[in-house]
Amino acid sequence: MNYDRRRACHPGDVKQYDTERLRKEFLVETLFVKDEINLSYSQYERYILGGAFPVEQALVMETIDAIKSEYFCERRELGVINIAGDGVVKVDGKEYPLTAKEAIYIGRGSKEIVFSSVDKNNPAKFYLSSTPAHKEYPTTIVNKEKANILNLGSQATSNERTIYQLIVPGIVESCQLVMGLTELHEGSVWNTMPSHTHDRRMEAYFYFEVPQGQAVCHLMGEPQETRHLFMHNEQAVFSPEWGIHSGVGTSNYSFIWGMGGENLDYTDMDHIQPDELR
């Protein structure tokens, strides 16, 4: 188990950051290391993201010093989405198979969480998101058939995409964690345009299925004071409540979004039209 900490940053300070500082504060470059769990703990909503990559051995989700708990989910809920080979998530002795692009919600009070791969030659990769929780909700598997599916955008605006809402109200009960997965169609490169902010919660993006040699330009910062980060395959970025989160790739790709904060309303956002951005 490895983790780092990210402090909250004032938007007035962030506009003075150079590229190196922006990347240090907001970008998570390495999530998947063979037979390790790597986490990044943000002061924004106490949100934790990370990756578990079991190859030769099963990996136990242990607590970390920063949260001062007896076990990881003592006061937290956890969302997991597998992005690679078949895997198994064991929660308090019960095994939950998880194939590619399936999710599992693990509720507060779950003591033993273990990640493993079915085949070490085609290992699972588990993307993790966690937020503080005030109540226990049951562990629940969500696949694409159970997901709420939205088809948005168009080829004309280069943002034709399919959104799979996985851990959202009506599908899974959670305290504050919301998660889903978006696939951009071939020929489309823009995600989340028009961009938006939501003052009542923060969000994190995890980009994957970015082809080799390609990149995603992730847009962040205040709407009138935007910044950007060039991101590569299987990297994540924290988005504070005061900033936009949008991106454009040099090819189509997929990304996982996760949110935590004041409410669970997916549509609670303040849109900024393209001609309003600076």
Structural class: mainly beta
Query: Which bin fits the share of residues in helices?
Result: under 10%
Give the CA-based shape: globular
What is the name of the CATH architecture? Sandwich
Number of helices: 2
- Low-pLDDT segments, ≥5 res: none
Order of helices and strands: EHHEEEEEEEEEEEEEEEEEEEEEEE
Biggest sheet overview: 7 strands, mixed
Oligomer: single chain
**Domain module tally:** 1
Q: How many whole angstroms does the radius of gyration measure?
A: 18 Å
Biggest sheet strand order reads 1-3-4-11-6-9-12
CATH superfamily descriptor: Jelly Rolls
What's the quick description here?
The protein is mainly beta and 278 residues long. It has a single domain (2-276), classed as Jelly Rolls. It is built from 2 helices and 24 strands.
Outline the secondary-structure elements.
Blueprint: E1 2-6, H1 11-14, H2 19-26, E2 27-28, E3 37-42, E4 48-52, E5 59-60, E6 76-82, E7 87-91, E8 94-98, E9 103-106, E10 113-117, E11 126-132, E12 140-142, E13 148-152, E14 161-167, E15 178-184, E16 190-191, E17 195-197, E18 201-208, E19 216-222, E20 225-231, E21 235-239, E22 246-249, E23 254-261, E24 270-272
Parallel strand pairs: 1-3
Antiparallel strand pairs: 2-21, 3-4, 4-11, 5-10, 6-9, 6-11, 7-8, 7-10, 9-12, 13-14, 14-15, 15-23, 16-22, 17-24, 18-21, 18-23, 19-20, 19-22
